[in-house]
Predict the structure.
Amino acid sequence: MSGTSARPRATTRSTVPGEKRKLQNEPVGVDVIELPVLFALQAEGIKVVDGQQLMLEARKIKTQDEITLLNSACMMVDAAYEELYRFMRPGVRENECVGLVSKVLFDLGSEHVEGVNAISGERCSPHPHVYTDRVLRPGDPAFFDILHSYNGYRTCYYRTFAVGSASSAMVDAYKRCRDYMDAAISIVKPGITTADVVKLWPKAEEFGFANEEAAFALQYGHGVGLCIWEKPIFSRLVSLDNPEVIEEGMVFALETYWPASDGWSAARLEEEVVVTKNGCEVITRFPSEKLLVAGTQYFTFSGPLSNTRETQSPLNNPGALERVKR
């Protein structure tokens, strides 16, 4: 009322929600918690239990609004890869690529760039997950994973490029990586399981690892939503023994990797898909059906320099020895 001070209504024990619903002595499920809060609850005698698995189960199927937000987040990464493709050339550093990607995402409305993996050259095999100040060189492979958030909804989105040109070993590795990806996407539909997908992927020993634990997250799949890694999970480490059924409305990312025969190059790909009534829709749209070569297109007296070439190798000039001998 006018002229009076509003006073908070006293809360009596009878209005405490826990008591009203007879839940005051029940455990409290928590998905994410800070340690001081956890300790404070425990000090009050409240039993805190894992509520994360329940929340992940509840978030497996996305609403149409959630799918729209996830699609919008991918659109921003499409744009980031477009600028990155135009930017990459010999002399550019990995961390400069990260800065460019971050700027594009923030300009388009991202609220949080969670991470940009930028891996190039000899760092591609084995595969780390951090960027450095390494300088790109002609013939380098370079792959990136762009993770950001738009209105709370994340992306996990790999692409692989070659700088200037690609060796035959790198081209072959990319084809193998793409084939595993396409095989997996081709069977995605409601009713199959995560085990059906991972059976199409190579065993760890086939691409240089001792076991599935050592190769974990290289041939991999995971739900995407409010977190980067949600349900369902696709991995030969767990999915063969614990398959999850694919349902309409799920959104998940599939990741494949293949090291090249040269011992240092490698290809890495990732596509996000929405499970539809009869199949799936790919929402990561930046081109990846074939290996893209970024940087300057060089020309010789006889025409364009081939984009598939061994770096400073006699294999680029077949018959050179015979010509010299003549």
Q: What stands out?
A: The CA atoms of residues 220 and 255 lie 5 Å apart.
